[in-house]
Task: inverse folding
């Protein structure tokens, strides 16, 4: 069961898988100068970009969505950057290394949500939204109440995710760079604050793009060098891997990870629709010029993601032979024992084996850059929920000036950064494996149902949206709280109250049902007006007429 | 003002045509993806052994790897198909609808 949560962590942007494994396993390594120098080059480059971006970040549109002027290709790279984390690189390679085919199954599950997002959501998101996804849910409903609800669930997702990222970052950096945990946490938190407060979405997007290119290039190079040792023959690699691996022929059979159908379906739902409810992913759709570019961004993003997952599959398989057979990478030189640095280090050891210290340093720098980029995206999404939804729309009711809205969002970013640093330090030794599961559960059960209903179902009213949103939020939180990963593993009770670790299959129907029943039974005048307003919203969703357009630069 | 525009667009038969064509296309593709993906998940849950078989006698390639690789490529091809049709056919239809609504406006 624990593995499911661990695997969930791999999905998006989390380094949780590493964190979960690393909590017990990380020992501070010798200071890795190659990695530190390459990372400093990355920081210098991104700081330059932030400096340039700061001069272009004047309006709220610049800050939240880079003025809506990002192209489909750039946004595709940035989405892929958001989606492929350090955990994707390290955790999934390790999973293929240890479990073989199971790792590949997970990668398909992480990928399959993208076509659905394109077919059903991408263009409507772009046509209806401006800065945050609450723009869409609150489009024809009560602005104050619905935005407050959406902001609360967004911030819940962002906070849990940030904790998972920060703890993962600290552990990983301790391992890869040989820096102190607290130093790593402060470095990540402060760099993130600088990117977001000065450069807003422009800087965040470019950090993502650079990082995605580094990740794609680094992974491809390692895979290429590793495959060259086997004459680029997949058959050759498979044959040797099967005879070398302790699973033998079973390496290419589905293993124990998805045996239970309820968990399998629940996990599939959570991954697919959780992704479609993550505020920082949804926000990326508002950075492009129009629906055309929004569609293209999904095309490019899913292409990069699919490609990279297959690269990782090959890295994991070749790792079985190149790393798994080399005593140099094992504690005490015993290949039956533990890998140096823990199971998640396969990709790093592989880089060292095929490309020496330079390539190892490069890949380590990529992992650090990845964490920074993801944390920045999260902080921006959280800050926009506070400044755009809560401050400008709920508290000031639309009368706030742009300058004061930007000021609030910068203050919010700094507060979020400070919170992330404090929580990162507090949670250092905690078992945080449930947090990404919770973030995805809330995204799938609180954000996604209300968002999709507001776009597709005429009958949704404010009352229905609030019940659906809060119902989904609280049921997802409670299911995770009562599941084994919190009730037993964290709180130390004997048996879980809820038998499954994945909330999506249960919490999503609750949200949909509540939204449906409470809308249907709502006979107020206001509800009638909201239903009528759907017609205009529908035409705009379909045609994009009246949609927020790119600001001029 | 814009409500009147929306009113005219909605009344345009081309709008109904756009919506009908696009929804049919998008939902068909979505169903293909959902059925294939959850069909695969069900196979993993209920009949995992079938996925470990070699695709042909003596081959190292297993059914599971072949099926997955196919899905990675096929799903991406579907997104490409959708983007191509939406960015040409559907978008030009949309532009016509908006243009015609503007003309009536004058």
Result:
């Amino acid at each position: 069961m624990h593995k499911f949560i661990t695997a969930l962590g791999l999905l998006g942007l989390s380094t949780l898988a590493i964190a979960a494994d690393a909590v017990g396993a990380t020992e501070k390594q010798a200071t890795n100068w190659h990695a530190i120098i390459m990372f400093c080059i990355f920081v210098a480059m991104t700081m330059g970009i932030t400096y340039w971006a700061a001069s272009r970040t004047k309006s709220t549109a610049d800050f939240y969505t880079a003025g809506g002027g990002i192209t489909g290709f750039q946004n595709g790279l940035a989405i892929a950057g958001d989606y492929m984390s350090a955990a994707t690189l390290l955790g999934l390679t390790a999973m293929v290394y240890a479990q073989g085919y199971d790792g590949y199954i997970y990668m398909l599950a992480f990928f399959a949500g993208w076509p659905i997002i394109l077919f059903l959501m991408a263009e409507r998101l772009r046509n209806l939204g401006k800065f945050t996804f609450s723009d869409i849910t609150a489009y024809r409903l009560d602005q104050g109440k619905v935005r407050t609800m959406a902001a609360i669930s967004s911030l819940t997702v962002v906070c849990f995710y940030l904790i998972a990222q920060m703890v993962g970052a600290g552990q990983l950096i301790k391992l890869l760079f040989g820096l102190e945990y607290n130093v790593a946490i402060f470095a990540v938190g402060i760099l993130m604050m600088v990117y977001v407060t000065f450069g807003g979405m422009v800087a965040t997007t470019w950090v993502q793009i650079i990082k995605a290119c580094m990740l794609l290039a680094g992974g491809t190079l390692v895979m290429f060098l590793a495959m060259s040792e086997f004459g680029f023959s997949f058959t050759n690699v498979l044959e040797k891997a099967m005879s070398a691996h302790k699973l033998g022929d079973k390496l290419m059979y589905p293993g124990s990870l998805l045996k239970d159908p309820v968990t399998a379906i629940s996990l599939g739902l959570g991954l697919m629709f959780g992704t479609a409810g993550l505020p920082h992913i949804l926000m990326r759709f508002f950075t492009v010029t129009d629906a055309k570019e929004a569609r293209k961004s999904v095309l490019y993003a899913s292409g990069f993601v699919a490609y990279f997952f297959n690269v990782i599959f090959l890295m994991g398989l070749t790792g079985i032979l190149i790393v798994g057979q080399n005593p140099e990478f094992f504690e005490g030189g015993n290949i039956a024992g533990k890998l140096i640095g823990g199971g998640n280090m396969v990709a790093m050891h592989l880089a060292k084996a095929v490309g020496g210290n330079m390539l190892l340093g490069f890949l380590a720098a990529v992992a650090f850059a990845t964490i920074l980029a993801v944390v920045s995206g999260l902080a921006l999404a959280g800050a926009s929920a506070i400044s755009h939804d809560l401050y400008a729309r709920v508290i000031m009711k639309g009368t706030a000036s742009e300058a004061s809205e930007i000021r609030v969002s910068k203050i919010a970013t700094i507060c979020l950064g400070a919170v992330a640093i404090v929580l990162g330090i507090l949670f250092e030794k905690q078992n945080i494996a449930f947090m990404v599961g919770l973030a995805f559960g809330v995204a799938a059960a609180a954000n996604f149902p209300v968002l999709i209903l507001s776009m597709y179902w005429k009958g949704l009213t404010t009352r229905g949206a609030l019940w659906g949103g809060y119902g989904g939020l609280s049921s997802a939180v409670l299911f995770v709280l009562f599941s084994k990963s919190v009730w037993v593993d964290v709180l130390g009770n004997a048996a879980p109250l809820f038998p499954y670790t994945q909330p999506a299959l249960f919490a999503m129907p609750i949200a949909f049902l509540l939204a449906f029943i409470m809308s249907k039974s709502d006979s107020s005048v206001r509800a009638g007006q909201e239903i009528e307003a759907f017609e205009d919203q529908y035409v705009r969703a379909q045609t994009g007429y009246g949609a927020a357009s790119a600001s001029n630069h | 003002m814009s409500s009147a525009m929306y009113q005219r667009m909605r009344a345009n038969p081309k709008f109904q045509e756009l919506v009908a064509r696009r929804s049919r296309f998008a939902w068909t593709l979505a169903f293909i993806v959902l059925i294939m993906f959850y069909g695969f998940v069900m196979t993993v849950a209920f009949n995992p052994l079938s996925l470990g078989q070699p695709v042909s006698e003596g081959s190292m390639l297993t059914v599971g790897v072949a099926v997955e690789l196919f899905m990675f490529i096929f799903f991406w091809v579907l997104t490409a198909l959708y983007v191509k049709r939406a960015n040409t056919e559907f978008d030009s239809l949309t532009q016509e609808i908006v243009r015609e609504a503007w003309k009536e406006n004058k």
The two ends of chain A are 51 Å apart (CA to CA). Chain A touches chain B through 50 residues (CB under 8 Å). The longest helix of chain A spans residues 346-395. Residues 2-54+62-543 of chain A form a domain with the Sodium/glucose cotransporter fold (CATH 1.20.1730.10).
